[in-house]
Amino acid sequence: MSYRFLVVVAIFLSIAGCGSSDEVASSWQVPDLSIGVPDLKQDVVKRDVVEGVEFYDILRGEFGGDSYILSSGVLDSAAVGQYMALLKRLAIDYSLESAAERAPQGNQIGDILRIRSVRNRQDAEDLSRKLQENGLIFNVVYSAQEGLETTGPFKISLLKIDLNQFDGRIVNSLAQKTMQGAETVSAMSVREKSVAGINGGYFVFNDEVGDYGAPAGIYVENGVLLREASNDRPVLIVDNSGDKTNIIFGRSVRTELFLKQGNQYIQLNGLNRKPGLLLNCGGYEGRPLMEPAHDFLCTNSNEVIAFDRNYGAFTPVGDVSELILSPEGSLVDFSKSSGTEIKEGHTYIQFSGNKFFDFNQQETMELVQRVYVDGKEFQLKPGISMVSGGPTLILDGKLADGLRARQGWNPFPRKTESDDQNTDENATLPVGIENREAFYGNWVLRRHPRTAIGLTAENILYMAVVYGRNPGVSEGATITEMSNLMKALGVDHAMNLDGGGSSIMVLNDQPTGPFSDPQERMVSDAIFLVANE
């Protein structure tokens, strides 16, 4: 690998003095980060942020002649035959190619038809419209972002945090300090007075699939459960209950919620979310899938959902019965009302469809919450935060590709009803052939902007953002490439976070790379480094 290393020295003076930045620079060099073809040149600019924290601005590779092509995405055998017959009738040259990787289970996930005979993006878009008029849906994609071999370029932002030296905290921040609404990472950074940070977990991206801006999976803040888990997905745990931040990775998180009165109880479906809608699935009694399924909407017209002040100012409006409990668990009201103003300390339980609870109005009730990480109950306490992500990239120092199917990225879910509810914002296959194989091909195997976090056995925390969807500027990474990046950094555990237009790193409140959206995307939460004052 051709390697060039530039050092930008920031000098921090104190009464006790400071160590040599040159000594720090010579002790560690950015390894080959394994994105694109092997042994690409990496230009690196290093900056000392605060004690124990180093920022690396990395430009890997260079433009190598990539161009726009048309791609069908992953198709099943019946669709491939249909497409090939129509392309021959239209006298359009194409190639039939296998997906770049196999499914986590080891089997082939389908084939892809690609048309490479276009001269530029405009030609590709014109041909795409012509094909659509004939019933064929082809995406206009840049070849480097299709997951094919490429020399890049790749713009990578890397934070290296020595948790043994960093005099500060790693903190989660919830947008708008509520479960509804979103905010840019830059704005949250200003509020948290952070020195650096990255975007966090997945979230509800519009009001049709839930409450816009709400985390789409477990969220715990300072020991308080604010949102139930999308069961069996991975979790990042930030423990600030001691003198130093402790980071824990779980490959599977589950929650159980119960409304209990004496010996009677009813299991709840959710906490602080819009009834009937569960983005990413994995919920109690979810339909049509009980297993997690990323960017897929599960529904259920018969649910019991609890709300508290963390949800917002009012409970959701709908055809429900609503039970209101005082801070002591006494009954305040039970009626067909909804859209009720939420009072601090009170709990609001909504029953929809055929759900009901035969309670005694004179006795108190209790909301019981349990969180399980990797099969063991996890005790929440002040200082504990949790954010959902996935898939797991590295587990016990090894690539964790085999976990994808269990964590929401299964190309072959047990229920075929998934074919008509795929909500992936980038999947444009026609409904007749839409499937989770196509979703897997687009989401996992194509290059997109990505954000990931990993921890070594020596307590070195890495936060990495690979910017993307900017042809000739930065192409993004596949999920496997993010696993390889974290493996190259020597981590024991690593997890992917939200990506695409959400991917961003900020340093002193400023983005470190180019957005893939026209402007910085608003997200549900972020992870920050906050130095002690």
UniProtKB/TrEMBL annotation:
InterPro entries: NAGPA. It holds the Pfam family NAGPA. Residues 337-529 form the Phosphodiester glycosidase domain. It comes from the Bacteria. Keywords: Glycosidase, Hydrolase. One of its GO terms (molecular function) is hydrolase activity, acting on glycosyl bonds. This is Phosphodiester glycosidase family protein. It comes from Lampropedia aestuarii.
